[in-house]
């Protein structure tokens, strides 16, 4: 890809602008002079390996992109990148599976950086049963499954508000990460029709997720867990989504499921 050949200064300037920081703002945060930062962005100076990592840290650049910065500056990657199926990732994968299993009978699932399903506990399949088979072919995209008219969308309560929340969250992720695949997914999801009468509402501070399963309507509060201290690319991009019942009827329904 052409981005891999871009000078380090181009990456630095692009991410600084994405974070809406001036050169002075970033220079103060990184404890360097504005003049030096300007020279780095224009290519009149080349950063050391430590400077690349320091600036990436201040701009909260994802680990995958930090490796790209290092390569653009002529250095070896700092963070290993291995598929989750790699034998060396077994301890991390086991930890994820343990978190998911411990959350049962409440639903919990793990997704990668593009919202593709990595794993889920036994409480998830009964909730997504009935979705169109094409949406359940691996890799299952959780965002697509939730918002597609042939997926969970017709069974989600207050769908307009949930849709607005999901799209806003995805838009933030696409902007923060600069990932074109997320931007493309966002365009796709925005093109899905919303059910009649489901006007979009402002995001709530804590939006309940209500889903009809058979004759019952289950109500959840969702939380997100990430591996904040991860130093491996794939693990740093993994997100665990957990669902907590908001009423006794939902708790009882989950126990039966």
UniProtKB/TrEMBL annotation:
SMART domains associated with the record: HTH_XRE
Highest taxon of the lineage: Bacteria
CDD domains cross-referenced by the UniProt entry: HTH_XRE
GO terms assigned for molecular function: DNA binding
Xref: Gene3D superfamilies: 3.30.450.180, lambda repressor-like DNA-binding domains (1.10.260.40)
Domain HTH cro/C1-type: 12-66
InterPro entries: Cro/C1-type_HTH (IPR001387), Lambda_DNA-bd_dom_sf (IPR010982), MLTR_LBD (IPR041413)
Name this polypeptide is given: XRE family transcriptional regulator
Provenance organism: Muricoccus nepalensis
